[in-house]
Amino acid sequence: MSTYFKDYPDAEGFFGPYGGAYVPENLKQEMVKIAEAYYRISKSHDFISELRQIRKHFQGRPTPVYYCRNLSERLGGRIYLKREDLNHSGAHKLNHCMGEVMLAKYMGKKKVIAETGAGQHGVAMATAAAYFGLPCDIYMGEVDIAKQHPNVLRMKILGANVIPVTHGQRTLKEAVDAAFDAYLNDPENTIYCIGSVVGPHPFPMIVRDFQKIVGEESRTQFLEMTGELPDAVTACVGGGSNSIGIFCGFLDDPDVKLYGVEPLGRGTKPGDHAASMTYGKPGILHGFKSYTLQEEDGSPMPVYSVASGLDYQSVGPEHAWLHDQGRVEYVTADDKETIAAFFELSRSEGIIPAIESAHAVAYAIRYAKEHPHGSILVNLSGRGDKDIDYVAENFGILGN
């Protein structure tokens, strides 16, 4: 797999049968322009140098890898965290947002548009827009606005215009719909900075490339800490940006097992979960082909997750390809297990995780119990400040 990143995606944006750009012709031409601009500047010395300076002096990279001593000693296995919660703005999202807004500036765009579910992408985009001096519109479902009030305030303080989405389920899918519609109105002067490895080509590639830094750092850090690679690496999967970022560092290491953790929510019935890889089938949504939770007529199925950032009907096309190739195993964690892991990490290590990230922590706890001599590295993709009001209101401060 040494040429993997040169081979995938192909020139048309496909990872095997997944990906592509299923968009109107006028928007397809804009996608071509974005791809060409990205190919030009991503290899330039000036762009790379500026991005490295931003990562070091503004974002605070590299983020550390941390050994969960208390949790590990109690469970038997060894659990490590890649602390993306310590990345500036509190999650991994800034890794690609800074790069996307740099690209927008290079292309002469006048405004950036984004969607957000849990608010972490929205906060990161608002941060990047403020840094580069561009106005920013962020579309967010009304349900998620109520759940993620602290992040809504952060976006507004940073100067972003937060636009409530009031149709449908009023969550992430509808926020993406609204952002796409806004972008279609003026693609020449605006750019839609997608928040995950989803959407039409070239966005799954662009976001992956900017998130690869997580895996590259992790692999080096883990070797320095332990003298070996982890037995397993895990991360939560909604659209899949944090997971593809850390997986990229270990794709060429066949002895390292990779686990993507999808949200099982309330159970296996349609509408009770958002586990698109586990229960979905190939389909087209938001301009790309991947595994999708869909009705018989092909329309998106209602989805649910306790984590606003994971309640999406599809998953990045590269994840679909890695699934079919057998390189990544996709598993699930339900709400109950996830919230238990949220409190477990908080009380054992003094680290409050985002509910999204707690899905991966839940799987790591399960793995550690089953592999008492093994090691697992979790991408702790975000911090839980945004979730504490929601958790306290719905689960109590004792987690009962």
How many domains, as an integer? Answer: 2
**N-C termini distance:** 46 Å
Shape: globular
CATH class of the largest domain: Alpha Beta
Number of DSSP E strands? 14
How does CATH name the architecture of the largest domain? 3-Layer(aba) Sandwich
List unreliable stretches of 5+ residues.
Answer: none
Give the strand line-up of the largest sheet.
3-4-14-9-10-13
Counting H and I runs of at least 4 residues, what is the number of helices?
16
Fraction of residues in helices? 40-55%
Q: Say what the CATH topology of the largest domain is.
A: Rossmann fold
Taking all Cα atoms into account, the compactness measure Rg is 19 Å
Task: Describe the secondary-structure layout.
Layout: H1 4-7, E1 14-15, E2 18-19, H2 25-41, H3 45-59, E3 65-67, H4 69-75, E4 78-83, H5 94-106, E5 111-116, H6 120-132, E6 136-141, H7 142-147, H8 149-157, E7 161-165, H9 172-185, E8 190-192, H10 203-226, E9 232-236, H11 241-247, E10 257-265, H12 276-279, E11 281-285, E12 288-292, H13 317-325, E13 328-334, H14 335-349, H15 355-370, E14 375-380, H16 388-395
Characterization of this structure:
The chain is α/β, with parallel strands linked by helices and 400 residues long. It has 2 domains: 15-55 and 93-204, 3-Layer(aba) Sandwich (Rossmann fold); 60-91 and 212-395, Rossmann fold (3-Layer(aba) Sandwich). 45% of the residues lie in helices and 18% in strands. The strands form 4 sheets. It has a 6-stranded mixed β-sheet, with helices on both faces. It has a 4-stranded parallel β-sheet with strand order 7-6-5-8, sandwiched between helices. Strands 1-2 form a two-stranded antiparallel sheet. Helix 11 (241-247) links the parallel strand 9 and strand 10 (257-265). Helix 5 (94-106) runs parallel beside helix 6, helix 10 crosses helix 11 and helix 14 crosses helix 15 (355-370). The protein is globular. It starts with a helix and ends in a 5-residue tail after the last helix. The model has no long low-confidence stretch (mean pLDDT 95).
